[in-house]
Task: inverse folding
């Protein structure tokens, strides 16, 4: 499958930044492509696959059992360099685990896009099919939730 | 690990597209200009370039697996989709005691490995480290939630390797959501559990009306 060869490792790296687990990231991406193969979806672009990986990672983390296992065994180095922060807090798997049940689906995806994938608001708007204004509102709400968890309060 | 960007960081998506030669000219120019002056983003790009890992192969012939299963099951097979391996977590309840097949209940299951091998009978051999998908055969009129409980060796508590499947459209060889990997050298008792009308209650498998069908599996000889 051409898309797997072309984008597979980019997607594993993305999943690793979210889950901070190399084995889970690899399993997740492999599983995604096996499913796509089953559906005969062959003409796949990276932005579409990025969203699919985000959603699968978040689904994995929303399960309490998976979340506990990943938090217990995560590798901080797998997060990679954090160039974007939320209230000066790096959004890593620890913080993500605290946020997944406090945000809705759209907010969770935007959280990952902005603070793990380091996308601009314009990129998020284009990727998710939202207006920039909507993205901005969702980010404000995400920042409020992060602030409510405590920690550094200086806006990024 | 945090690194200061000199301005707005380049997204990982932009860096990946640049690395793969998929970036349009405008993006390519923006990446090159930015990494020329931003060490944080340059380091991120270098980390992509330096990653030489290889991915495991996809199943070579997806459709041939389905054909093989159709022959084995004597009928149509539902979607055969391997999903990500998921965590095993432990609950405490006794193993279901139903026989290996529910007599007259018309519910059965097979395990299909990611190499297309299948385990249809109790006493079948599982391969260490292999990922398995569960295919259930159930009456089309049946509406139930489904779960899989795995009892390892002499442990009294099962693990639940899959997310529960709701609203399964019953039929012949219908795949439950997800897949799981098996490890170890102990025998396994794999039970497919269902409950009509409601979610299976993992904390009270036996008394809550959930039914099950189980197979005891043994590790394959090396």
Result:
């Amino acid at each position: 499958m051409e898309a797997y060869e072309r984008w597979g490792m980019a997607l594993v790296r993305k999943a690793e930044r979210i889950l901070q687990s190399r084995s889970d990231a690899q399993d997740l991406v492999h599983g995604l492509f096996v499913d796509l193969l089953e559906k005969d979806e062959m003409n796949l672009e990276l932005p579409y696959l990025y969203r699919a990986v985000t959603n699968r990672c978040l689904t994995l983390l929303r399960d309490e059992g998976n979340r506990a296992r990943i938090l217990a065994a995560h590798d901080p180095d797998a997060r990679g360099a954090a160039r974007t922060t939320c209230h000066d807090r790096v959004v890593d798997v620890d913080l993500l685990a605290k946020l997944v049940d406090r945000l809705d689906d759209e907010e969770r995806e935007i959280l990952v896009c902005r603070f793990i994938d380091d996308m601009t608001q314009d990129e998020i708007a284009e990727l998710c099919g939202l207006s920039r204004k909507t993205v901005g509102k969702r980010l404000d709400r995400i920042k409020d939730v992060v602030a409510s968890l405590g920690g550094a309060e200086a806006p990024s | 690990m945090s690194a200061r960007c000199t301005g707005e960081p380049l997204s990982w998506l932009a860096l990946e597209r640049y690395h793969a030669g998929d970036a349009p000219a405008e993006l390519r120019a923006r990446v090159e200009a930015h990494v020329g002056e931003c060490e944080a983003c340059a380091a991120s790009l270098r980390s992509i370039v330096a990653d030489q890992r290889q991915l495991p192969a996809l199943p070579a012939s997806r459709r041939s697996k389905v054909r093989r299963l159709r022959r084995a099951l004597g009928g149509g097979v539902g979607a055969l989709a391997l999903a990500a391996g998921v965590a095993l977590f432990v609950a405490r309840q006794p193993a279901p005691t139903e026989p290996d097949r529910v007599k007259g209940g018309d519910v059965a299951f097979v395990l299909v490995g990611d190499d297309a091998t299948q385990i249809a009978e109790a006493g079948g051999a599982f391969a260490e480290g292999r990922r398995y998908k569960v295919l259930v055969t159930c009456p089309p009129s049946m509406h139930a939630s489904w779960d899989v409980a795995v009892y390892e060796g002499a442990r009294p508590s099962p693990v639940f390797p899959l997310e529960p499947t709701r609203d399964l459209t019953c039929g012949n060889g219908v795949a439950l959501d997800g897949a799981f990997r098996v490890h170890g050298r102990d025998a396994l008792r794999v039970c497919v559990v269902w409950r009509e009308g409601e979610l299976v209650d993992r904390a009270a498998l036996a008394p809550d009306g959930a039914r099950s069908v189980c197979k005891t599996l043994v590790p394959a000889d090396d």
